[in-house]
Amino acid sequence: MTNLKLQEFQKQAMKKVPELKSGMTVRVHQKIKEGEKERIQIFEGLIIKISAGDGINKSITVRKVVEGVGVEKIFPIHSPIVTKIEVKKKSKVRRSKLYYMRERFGKSARLRGKFVKSEDAKLEKEIEESAGKLAEEAEKKEAEETKDEPKESKEEQV
Questions:
Q1: Which residues face 34 on adjacent strands?
Q2: Average pLDDT of the chain?
Q3: Cα–Cα distance measured from residue 74 to residue 70, given in angstroms and rounded to the nearest whole number
């Protein structure tokens, strides 16, 4: 009985997040409280570990280098503190835990991969395409109107 209630609570608390794998470069939007004020801070880095936790207990470890010092943060994915997770880059890796990245810096710390187009870029592309279609339709209408005009002008000249 209590197990069912716990499972229902966990389903309600789970968020919709993108598919995350180690080797991805992500931007994690995190709520920070400073006194009475609340703001969102972005932490961008490489996922070096995804915990073995299941469901609501799943967490990721994100690493970035700031002024020559490696910084790692552990984020519970479904926590209310984490507002959004954006995937910026997908890299090809052959391990699930990238602890070896801790010893690497500079060029040896690069991973092969490709940048992922964000949802904003997709929306902008769709807007451009629809604007292009509208412009083409307007040009067609103008062309039809100009075809009709010369006939009228010839009649007027005679």
A1: 37
A2: 81
A3: 13
120's CB contacts (< 8 A; 6+ apart) are none
Q: How would you class 25 by CB atoms within 10 Å of its CB: exposed for 0-12, middle for 13-18, buried for 19 or more?
A: buried
Which amino acid appears at position 105 of this protein? Answer: F
What is the CATH topology of the domain spanning 2-116?
Answer: SH3 type barrels. (2.30.30)
Q: For 119-136, write each residue's pLDDT tens digit.
A: 555 555 666 666 666 667
**40 with 30: CB under 8 angstroms?**
yes
CB 123 within 8 A of CB 64: no
Q: Is the pLDDT of residue 37 over 90?
A: yes
Cα–Cα distance between 87 and 26 in angstroms, integer?
Answer: 4
DSSP 116: P
pTM: 0.67
Q: What pLDDT shows up at residue 102?
A: 86
> So where are the chain's domains?
2-116, 118-158
List, in order, residues 6 or more apart from 30 with CB less than 8 Å away: 40, 41, 42, 43, 75, 81, 82, 83
CA distance linking residue 28 with residue 42, whole number of Å: 6
CB distance 18 to 87 below 8 Å: yes
Looking at residue 130, its pLDDT comes to: 66
